């Protein structure tokens, strides 16, 4: 199983990345996560949002669910890449130092977080 970000946070986000060809797969994964796990499923964005370099859907969950959610996502993502980060209020650190990947890593557009 992938390594948890180095600090334990109260909240986490997992962003499921997809492209037009994998939209249906991402929708199904997000819907299943909402039914089977203690996560809040955000909108499925068919456009770039925030620092994310791909279309995405956000899952929000508590630290108590971290191991279950990450294990489930890793086992069920079927080739989709997932970006996971803690939520501390420091967006730059959350998307860099407090982050991990399931699948292939992508470069985020961090310009919006520059201090």
Automatic annotation (TrEMBL):
Q: Which GO terms describe its molecular function?
A: dioxygenase activity
Report the EC code(s) recorded for this entry.
Answer: 1.14.99.-
Q: Report whether Oxidoreductase shows up as a keyword of the record.
A: yes
Pfam families the UniProt entry points to: DOPA_dioxygen (PF08883)
Q: Which SUPFAM superfamilies match?
A: DOPA-like
Does the keyword Oxidoreductase feature in the UniProt annotation? yes
Q: Which UniProt keywords apply?
A: Dioxygenase, Oxidoreductase
Q: Which PANTHER family match?
A: AFR070WP (PTHR36423)
* Name of the featured protein: 4,5-dioxygenase
